[in-house]
């Protein structure tokens, strides 16, 4: 018997650049319920610490400092928020046809309530709530954006359940 050496890797975190770190932490903790595991702090460009060296490797030399905060979802996925003082403060144009990260997705069985809260905090509902299997299964989805213009999706059910074998059939 041979062993499959290619196992599924787990998802660790996603990094999101925002224009205002304090407002983003407020939105994501109060609306999404994500746990704050590290309050906003400042990272400066320097070679004396491990984080300073790592950030120089990642960002190069065209920066002096930035703010960072860490949050976590209920299933332990990290949300790493960045805010750069000299960065463009508007979200990029939404264009899913270009190569790159298109969106991320969160799951909440009460999609209507979450959308209402997103809108109340300055976000947007980008489309009507849609059902994958109207009258057969209660799976719903909707694209929204946060107050900073970052687009994401909401599912009412797990990814596996939504797309499992036979999910599109009765």
From TrEMBL:
CDD domains in the record: VOC_ShValD_like
The record's InterPro entries line, in alphabetical order, gives: Glyas_Bleomycin-R_OHBP_Dase, Glyas_Fos-R_dOase_dom, MMCE/EMCE_epimerase, VOC_core
VOC domain sequence ranges:
10-157
Q: PROSITE patterns of this UniProt entry?
A: VOC
The answer on whether this UniProt entry bears the keyword S-adenosyl-L-methionine reads no
Q: Which Pfam families match?
A: Glyoxalase (PF00903)
**What's the protein name?**
Glyoxalase
């Amino acid at each position: 018997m041979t062993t499959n050496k290619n196992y599924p890797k787990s998802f660790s975190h996603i990094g999101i650049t925002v224009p205002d770190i304090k407002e983003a932490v407020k939105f994501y903790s109060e609306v999404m319920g994500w746990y704050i595991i590290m309050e906003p702090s400042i990272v400066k460009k320097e070679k004396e610490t491990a984080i300073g060296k790592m950030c120089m490797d990642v960002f190069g030399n065209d920066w002096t400092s930035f703010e960072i905060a860490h949050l976590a979802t209920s299933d332990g996925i990290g949300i790493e928020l960045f805010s750069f003082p000299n960065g463009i403060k508007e979200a990029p144009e939404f264009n899913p046809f270009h190569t790159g990260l298109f969106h991320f997705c969160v799951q909440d069985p009460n999609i209507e309530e979450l959308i209402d809260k997103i809108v109340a905090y300055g976000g947007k509902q980008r489309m009507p709530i849609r059902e994958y299997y109207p009258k057969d299964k209660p799976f719903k989805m909707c694209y929204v954006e946060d107050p900073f213009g970052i687009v994401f999706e909401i599912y009412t059910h797990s990814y596996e359940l939504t797309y499992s074998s036979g999910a599109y059939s009765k």
